[in-house]
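Weekly sync, protein design subgroup
Attendees: M.S., D.O., the rotation student, P.L. (late)

Item 1: inverse folding check
M.S. brought a backbone from last month's batch and wanted to see whether the design step gives back something sensible before we order anything. D.O. pointed out we never logged the input encoding, so this time it goes straight into the notes. Structure tokens as presented (507 positions):
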């Protein structure tokens, strides 16, 4: 009998039973006041007179009126660079012990995003909230005695002057509480290996000695790891090695495009739980099984605002125009795409992280990620978001009975006419590129009226190339780094796409 598992499950169920419903709007108002109060004596707080905002009748309105939007370049160029120069009390009291390195999906140069002790604690608290939410998923007691494979970036952080640097997953894993370390795999020694391929080899070698019940990580890299473990042990599925695997906590990107190829590695279905952890903080997690939406964490050190995702409000580089209107949680509507804006206990203020979301339940503050501002393809008025592209790829998978775990595209000129040029990562044999292009084109025209209009004007058609999925992973490795938080660009600029096509030809 799973005695410890029953105790843990009992504690989780009791905690869930005594948890009172809170008002997300009120919680957000409290968070904003706490942030302003804490940071009012910093250089940023004095510059924008946080005290006056706190003293105003409507702090949320005064906050939005007096503080401009900040993307990374503006935040770093005007404020965060001072922290790297040794100054203190810049955008948050003191100096951060960590900086999260994030190349995101847009380039080779790492961004350095401050991670304060308050943020580390907030991320840990969010993780605990998610654990308590497991009471909603009807998992057996013995699940809570199994080990958890957390596949992130290396926990061997780099010392840079007076702080440590690494990806947020590595920083978080390096701060795992002592009581949890017995459950955590691959363990501290393997997790510190910086080289992705070497780390995966060690995981494969040790896999059979672990009793893994849950997985956590970005789908693309987790798939590669699972495939390597299966290959190493000459197994048919991952359940041959980890028979008690029951849960996968996905994050970083939408799971949909990977679902078919991921399930092919399993012998039996497992519970998929979505999370939303960025370099800037733990934003949301899936609280209940009857939806794929995630609950915004509204009471834990992050204040959210929302800009309607309208092309008139977005600059060519994906940043927001200063004239763009901004809403609080009290004013948002269902089924409307919004650009997510955050202010945090790490000293990010009205900060654009580059993601777009949609609300699916206002009372529960539940959302879905719909894409990236920079991945919004509107070169010829097609107004395609990543979620529409994901839907199109999943349609192809079902229609052609194939797996397409990776893709990228760009609006490209062919003889001075624009086409959407797609590269699909798939093992399709003898692919009929013209047929696939027609299927994509017709699906998108039916799903998106702006795309249909564009096809009747400046957008002349769709071109498709099918390549081995491994080329996408090698591209990520060549341009950034394998594993961790690295994600594949879904939409590229013409210049980047030219470099991509050269890389594909060479590989």
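Designed sequence read out in the meeting:
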């Amino acid at each position: 009998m799973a005695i410890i598992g029953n105790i843990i499950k009992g504690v989780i169920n009791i905690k869930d039973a005594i948890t009172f419903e809170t008002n997300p709007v009120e919680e957000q108002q409290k968070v904003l006041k706490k942030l302003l109060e804490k940071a009012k004596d910093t250089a940023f707080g004095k510059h924008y007179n946080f005290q006056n905002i706190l003293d105003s009748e409507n702090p949320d309105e005064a906050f939005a009126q007096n503080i401009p939007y900040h993307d990374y370049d503006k935040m770093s160029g005007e404020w965060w660079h001072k922290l790297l120069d040794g100054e203190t009390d810049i955008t948050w009291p003191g100096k951060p012990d960590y900086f999260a390195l994030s190349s995101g999906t847009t380039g080779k140069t790492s961004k350095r995003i401050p991670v304060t002790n308050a943020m580390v604690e907030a991320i840990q608290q969010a993780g605990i909230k998610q654990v308590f939410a497991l009471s909603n998923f009807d998992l057996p007691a013995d699940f809570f005695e199994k080990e958890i494979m957390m596949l992130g970036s290396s926990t061997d952080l780099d010392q840079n002057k007076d702080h440590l640097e690494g990806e947020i997953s590595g920083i978080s894993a390096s701060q795992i509480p002592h009581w949890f370390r017995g459950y955590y795999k691959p363990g501290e020694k393997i997790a510190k290996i910086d080289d992705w391929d070497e780390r995966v080899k060690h995981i494969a070698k040790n896999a059979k000695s672990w009793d893994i019940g849950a997985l956590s990580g970005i789908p693309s890299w987790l798939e590669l790891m699972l495939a390597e473990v299966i290959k190493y042990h000459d197994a048919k599925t991952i359940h041959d090695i980890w028979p008690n695997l029951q849960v996968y906590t996905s994050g970083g990107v939408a799971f949909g495009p990977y679902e078919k190829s991921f399930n092919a590695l399993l012998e039996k279905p497992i519970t998929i739980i979505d999370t939303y952890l960025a370099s800037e903080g733990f934003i949301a997690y899936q609280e209940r099984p009857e939806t794929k939406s995630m609950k915004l964490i509204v009471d834990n050190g992050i204040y959210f605002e929302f800009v309607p995702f309208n092309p008139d409000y977005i600059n060519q580089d994906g940043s927001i125009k200063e004239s763009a209107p901004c809403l609080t949680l009290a004013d948002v509507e269902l089924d409307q795409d919004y650009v997510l804006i955050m202010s945090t206990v790490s000293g990010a203020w009205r900060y654009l992280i580059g993601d777009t979301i949609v609300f699916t339940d206002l009372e529960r503050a539940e959302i879905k990620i719909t894409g990236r501002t920079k991945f919004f393809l509107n070169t010829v008025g097609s107004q395609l978001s990543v979620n529409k592209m994901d839907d199109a790829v999943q349609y192809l998978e079902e229609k052609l009975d194939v797996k397409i775990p990776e893709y990228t595209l760009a609006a490209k000129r062919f003889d001075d006419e624009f086409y959407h040029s797609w590269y699909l990562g798939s093992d399709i044999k003898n692919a009929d590129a013209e047929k696939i292009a027609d299927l994509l084109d017709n699906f998108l025209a039916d799903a998106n009226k702006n795309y249909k209009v564009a096809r009747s004007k400046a957008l002349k058609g769709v071109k498709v190339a099918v390549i081995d999925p491994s080329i996408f992973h090698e591209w990520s490795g060549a341009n950034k780094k394998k594993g961790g938080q690295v994600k594949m660009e879904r939409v590229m600029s013409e210049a980047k796409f030219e470099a991509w096509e050269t890389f594909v030809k060479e590989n």
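Discussion: Confidence is low (pLDDT under 50) at residues 3-11. The first strand starts at residue 98 and ends at 102.
Action: P.L. to compare against the previous round before Friday.
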